[in-house]
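Please describe what follows:
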Amino acid sequence: MQSTPLRRLAAASLAAALSAAALTGCGSSGDSGSGPAELTYWAWAPGMDKVAELWNKENPDIQVTVKKQASGDDLVTKILTAAKAGEAPDLVQAEYQALPTLVSGDVLADISGEVKDAGKAFPAGVWQQVTLGSDAVYALPQDSGPMMFYYREDLFEQYGLEVPGTWQEFADTARELKKQAPDKALTTFSSNDSGLFAGLAQQAGAKWWTTSGEQWKVGIDDAATRKVADFWGGLVEEGAIDNQPMYTPAWNKAMNTGEQLAWVSAVWAPGTLTTAAPDTKGKWAMAPLPQWDASKERTGSWGGSTTGVSRDCDHPEAAAEFATWLNTDPEALAALVKEGGIYPAATAAQTGGALAEPPAFFANQPDFYTEAAEIAKTTAPAAWGPNVNVAYGTFKDEFGKAAKSKKAEAFATALESMHRATVADLTKQGFGVAG
């Protein structure tokens, strides 16, 4: 199997340098042979084995065995190691931001020929993340995390606050709350989950990684991201919002007692609130994310995963068939919602069926998933690169310091540091970097 590093990609088509080698690695054995095609699927989503059982009962010629794995960087490292030894699983659950790393590591096959028109089942901004902006298809979207605005409906009414439609209104709402209740905060800026900031930057139009000729171009400190960093840094400096990280005991208490009235999060937030703020069930409501331009509805992504086929797969057509079923078939998607608690990326599955009723924590908002589906349609494209882990790690360190300092200028400095660290790492790895 020949290696085709991502550093040789042409900007016009990510697939151009990779598709030939990808097909060679996965397709040479074909799907012929005696007995069923035995496929191994590495995944972390709860209940995935139960979903696979539905497939196995109806497809005796293609049998899928799910092997539960850890998620995040640990799984990426494990897959890369297995691929180098020619022992990668046939299928893998991979987060969107991990795809460029797996493609550059010659792990994933281009399955565009096998999945054909599957892209029509997903929002354009989500589908773009599995094609990496090319004609190739490196995975099928499984679940997505469109971002939304959550707020305490009862407390907004108590303080006479309006749900902000723009980020300027968001800032004004934060200031108004502080005037009325200095001991409360609209929300907090948190540095312990990089995905939140990345999603906010996407909504603003940021493109952190793009290709230029045969080189990568890093745009982490672009105008869109600077606008986001300046906005939140300004609110922290003036004391309009809190500066403490999420998911800590202190944050849980603030959410549960009403010390914080809102949370910029994603569609999966009800599950987190159920644990973090159990006493507030039925008191929250969800609305679209505030906009930079009220005339252009957009949201960012925070979380979500895909199903990819590896180049080590001996049965690529069978694997692609299962991946397509898993992420587009109504029965499979209903099972994913029921068993794994995911929010399906496929548009048709985002309302009705398993999502006909709102989350139990939001029983007061019966149109929760109808509203969520409309928001999901506005998902902005995301631009990922082969070293997201470095960018995310630097964000946590540098923005953590900035938030603690409560200085707006420290947020700008943190963004510059994040950009430099990402460029330096790409260069160190041997990738060509433009600009």
Observations:
- Residues 408-429 form the longest helix (22 residues).
- The CA atoms of residues 64 and 426 lie 36 Å apart.
